[in-house]
Amino acid sequence: MPKTDYQYKFAFLFDQLTPLYELVRVLGIRNRLQQRLWPQVTIKPGSRVLDVGCGTGDDLVYLATHFDRLNLTGVDGDPKVLAIAKNKSKKRGLAVKFRASLAEALPFTSNSFDVAWSSLMVHHLPTKYKLLALQEMRRVLKPGGQLYLVEFGQISRWLRWLYWWQIRLEPVGDHFTGKLPGYIRQAGFKQLIETGLLFHVFLFQARK
């Protein structure tokens, strides 16, 4: 596990619960979210795509099987979910590369990817590291490269009390108050488009 200056949040919040992540994902709302997400996504054949915080690799599997000739790489700081992702990819015979890495220190040269993808990872990070992660995604993108960020977005004040448990468990409060678009622009991205997907989850699209 890479060392951090903050409390690392695992895919299912706690390391001991990682084996249950896949079960909860299947039984939860993830599938409905994906059904609304993918029609919004356009990626050119042959693009080099980086999934930051790839988790157990579901998005990479979909990208590999539904888009043409993508060069796919996934990074995550949790070796347990990376092992699940690698096994999932191997079983399907997919040519996906994986690296252990934190989002705020990506081990790639600048201007090397066409697409930076990240789904429900950034909200795990403290504010300072959210900005660093977004800056890193922009750094590794080629000029004009595309950001696809699936994340929690703004909700009305009277609804926030319903999510008090989530705010206590992870640093997501600034998402609920609508600060994420500002972070994306502060990182240097342009042409930001925000699309509601399901409940308080949004797709943020922008370009370098």
TrEMBL record:
UniProt keyword Transferase present: yes
Tell me the keywords, alphabetical order.
Methyltransferase, S-adenosyl-L-methionine, Transferase
Top-rank lineage group of the source organism: Bacteria
Q: Which residues form a coiled coil?
A: none
- Please provide the Gene Ontology terms (biological process) for this protein: methylation
One annotated GO molecular function is: methyltransferase activity
Q: Record's PROSITE patterns?
A: UBIE_2
Residues of the Methyltransferase domain: 49-145
Does this entry carry the keyword Hydrolase?
no
Which InterPro entries does the UniProt entry name for this protein? Methyltransf_25 (IPR041698), Methyltransf_Superfamily (IPR050508), SAM-dependent_MTases_sf (IPR029063), UbiE/COQ5_MeTrFase_CS (IPR023576)
PANTHER family from the entry?
METHYLTRANSFERASE (PTHR42912)
Its name, as the record gives it, is Methyltransferase domain-containing protein
Tell me the organism: Candidatus Beckwithbacteria bacterium RIFCSPHIGHO2_12_FULL_47_17
